[in-house]
Design goal:
By secondary structure, the chain is of the alpha/beta class. It is built from nine helices and ten strands. It has two domains: 1-83 and 161-186 and 193-247, P-loop containing nucleotide triphosphate hydrolases (Rossmann fold, 3-Layer(aba) Sandwich); 92-159, no CATH class. Helix 3 (99-110) packs across helix 4 (117-127), helix 3 (99-110) runs parallel beside helix 5 and helix 4 (117-127) packs across helix 5 (143-155). The chain is globular.
Length: 247
């Protein structure tokens, strides 16, 4: 993989479900170390694009590049081992395991062969400030802390790009502000590339350096948060045009 190449390059991605077009020729790049926000109204195709990039769903056409290497047909598991990690909209934790054990399971599945998974799990706990909760089980945690555990699981092992799927949804303003600060700190401290998928523009504007906007499965805007929120096409999209694609 080339360090000089874009962290992610999406080229002409299309996805159809029978006669329903979910993505229609989407192309963009994510630079190494960038925080990119992917937004759009409900039904815009955000989740479908997220699934295609992470490897959970194959595209109907187009390609996905990861640090210069074509990973379009590579499984989600192998992309994870390459360093492309994701969270899920619904937090997926093992209720019978402790926080430490939940992160350890993820580390065992994702570290490169021969790497010490215990050390990887411990690093992830430290990075998300979860060491004080290591012995607790998910039912004992707040939603904000469960989301932090989900992020720690995604980062356990080799992680070059972290994709966050609505990781801030459902949180109070104070909890969201705190998590935004921790995600920014990861980016500044480690140069971690981050892609944030959200449907609430105000949340992602607070975090991302650049935004891309989907509507009806097409890319309608790409720019800084200040540019995007003033874009009349984006404003109209958020005022409630008809939904034609799946999310």
């Amino acid at each position: 993989m080339s360090a000089a190449a874009p962290a992610i390059e999406v080229a002409g991605i299309g996805k159809s479900f029978g006669g329903l077009v979910a993505l229609d020729g989407v192309s963009f790049r994510v630079a190494p170390g960038e925080i990119l926000g992917l937004i759009g109204p409900n039904g815009a195709g955000k989740s479908t694009l997220f699934e295609v990039i992470s490897g959970s769903m194959p595209p109907s056409r187009g390609r996905v590049m990861f640090y210069g290497e074509d990973v379009t047909r590579r499984s989600a598991h192998l992309r994870r081992r390459d360093g492309l990690s994701r969270t899920f909209q619904k937090v997926r934790l093992f209720d019978t395991l402790t926080v430490e054990q939940n992160v350890a399971v993820a580390a065992m599945q994702s570290v490169p062969d021969g790497e010490p998974w215990r050390a990887a799990a411990e690093r992830a706990l430290v990075r998300m400030r979860l060491t004080g909760l290591a012995r607790r089980r998910p039912a004992e945690l707040t939603l904000a802390d469960r989301k932090k555990v989900e992020i720690a699981r995604a980062m356990a092992g080799f992680c070059r790009v972290l994709m966050l799927d609505e990781s801030l949804s459902g949180l109070t303003h104070e909890e969201a502000d705190e998590l935004v600060g921790e995600i920014r700190a990861l980016n500044r401290r480690e140069g971690l590339t981050i892609v944030v998928v959200e449907h609430v523009m105000s949340v992602v504007v607070a975090l991302a350096e650049r935004l891309i906007v989907l509507q009806h499965g097409r890319l309608i805007a790409d720019g800084t948060p200040a540019e995007v929120v003033r874009n009349p096409v984006v404003v109209e999209a958020y005022l409630g045009t008809k939904r034609r694609v799946v999310a």
